[in-house]
Amino acid sequence: MNNIASERKKLGLSQEGLAEALGTTRDSVKKYESGETAIRSTMLIKMADYFGCSLDYLMGRTEERLSHIVIQH
Predict the structure, then answer these.
(1) How many C-alpha atoms does 42 have within 13 Å on its Cβ side?
(2) Which pLDDT score is estimated for 67?
(3) With DSSP H G I counted as helix, E B as strand and the rest as coil, what are the percentages for the chain, rounded to 5?
(4) Alpha carbon distance 51, 54 (integer Å)
């Protein structure tokens, strides 16, 4: 399960409000939250930026909201 609905609710937004903020439809948000439809990578990035969290957290792959990746050169 993904964390889209919980992040939306933390901000006090309806599905319609989130849809408006992301430039999509309420029906799309409903399907994203339920896992009924796949989310395009561009929309995933837009959501993660909007919520201020990592893609992995948004999609339920980790419990940590932000990733702590260290890139070594």
Answers:
(1) 3
(2) 66
(3) 55, 0, 45
(4) 9
Whole-Å CA distances, 31 to 2, 35, 39, 56, 63: 11, 6, 9, 19, 22
- 4-58 CATH pick, 1.10.630.10, 3.30.450.20, 3.30.200.20, 1.10.260.40: 1.10.260.40
- The count of residues in the chain is 73
Contact 59/29 with Cβ under 8 angstroms?
no
- Provide the whole-model pTM: 0.83
pLDDT-based confidence at residue 73 (cuts at 50, 70, 90): low
pLDDT in tens, 43-68: 999 999 999 999 999 999 988 888 65
